[in-house]
Amino acid sequence: MAVNQKSLIESVPKGLLIGGRWREGGDGRTIAVEDPSSGSTITQVADATVADGREALDAAVAAQAEWAATAPRDRGEILRSAFEAITKRAEEFATLMTLEMGKTLAESRGEVTYGAEFFRWFSEEAVRISGRWSTAPNGATRLLTMKKPVGPTLMITPWNFPLAMGTRKIGPAIAAGCTMVVKPASQTPLTMLALAELLRECGLPDGVLNVITTTRTGDVIEPIIRDPRLRKLTFTGSTAVGRRLVEQSAQQLLRVSMELGGNAPFLVFDDADLDRAVEGAMLAKMRNIGEACTAANRFYAHEDVVDEFAEKLAKRMGALTLGKGTKKGVDVGPLIDAKARDGVAELVEHARAQGATVVTGGRAVPGRGYFYEPTVITGVAKDARMMTEEIFGPVAPIASFRTEAEAVALANDTEYGLASYVFTNDLGRMIRVAEGLQYGMIGVNQGIISNPAAPFGGVKASGFGREGGFEGIEEYLETTYVGIAP
Ligand code: NAP
Hints:
This protein is of the alpha/beta class. It has 16 helices and 20 strands.
């Protein structure tokens, strides 16, 4: 059933959630939330001050001891109820995300399923936190290891997946018994505000989850990071901001997880099933309008198949319909803002100027909203900016390679190391290439690798730490060892 957008937006709390109470920002200022398909303002939310940020941390610190002492089953049940409540209200969450972020309803529904699954997964993990008991090698003492929650955690999330980037941090933190201050991106705060209210309704105690929205981001966040009561920082966003936050957190040697930018290579070998590779390329490139850290950024196809691959991909990309994400029949929504759209246009112009050929697309769409045409470019130089920088838009540059070793070398020739994709039907090659790729995640014959049951994360300038899988909860736990002499 179609959701009434006006009453949906009205139903979302617009304040800061601090200590279980929704309230205005200290100086009453607000942030305008924009619909990127039109540029018009949807609504306003509170704009937190430095003092609001400190109060959010105060609330998280005050709630920590009692929260850590709750029964794991109780924490798991809150997550399970939240999973069910999100699923029941999937259409509302999907509509909200489409309105504030731009992706189509179909994609937002996919994110609701993916995002909610982190709550189900970690509801199951909450009761499986365990330690170890062993005898020291010399037999003299017994070694007991136990797990404890890290403590108050600051979570900073980006705008591209407004729900899932939150649930994959909040889920394990709740399961582990950590309290939180969450700061969503100021361009997409509504989904997080709705999620916070849902968690309250599902029985999350006051002060466990505190949410602040702000445009004075650096000023509000830095004092929280430098506050010795904070015990962990988890950040998803750009590498540039991540680097700055790691520097700030060094002072008090904070536990840190960083989910940063990517520059994913997509390798198509001559033994691959080309139709399957094109299908995978569509997903890896066009999911989230190309605005994903896992988005295929550079396509390398073997010289014997590169022309056919490019032709098939261009045909599929050229057939996509652009428009407002809530409209029926639309395949691709707008980019997040004018800066993002102009940045994509600049990268395409740079590649063109170096002699690359635009096979399809290659234009920003004039008029309201921040649309850029799905684009395929061939003959792209190795040092073109779009091969070395995150494109974050619907543009697929294609180049060719001759040998397996060359393909792996091209793929690794970047500071990033998040996601990568390989299409081949040769098992030996699959293993060799997977072993050679310097990436945290490798998709073989598939264009989507994100999965709540798998450890998501990168190496090199893509960061450190893992979200999801069995590893995800470890980020929120400390190990204490007790030596016992019997
Ligand atoms: P961003 O500019 O780094 O912003 C991410 C978050 O950091 C936002 O909440 C932002 O707040 C906040 N922020 C900005 N400056 C800050 C500062 N000085 N101190 C503290 N917080 C600050 O990134 P983005 O453009 O939103 O997101 C896109 C990037 O995220 C891409 O690079 C993408 O690859 C990456 N990403 C990575 C993953 C992953 O798992 N590896 C997943 C998704 C996205 P404001 O909104 O208020 O500026």
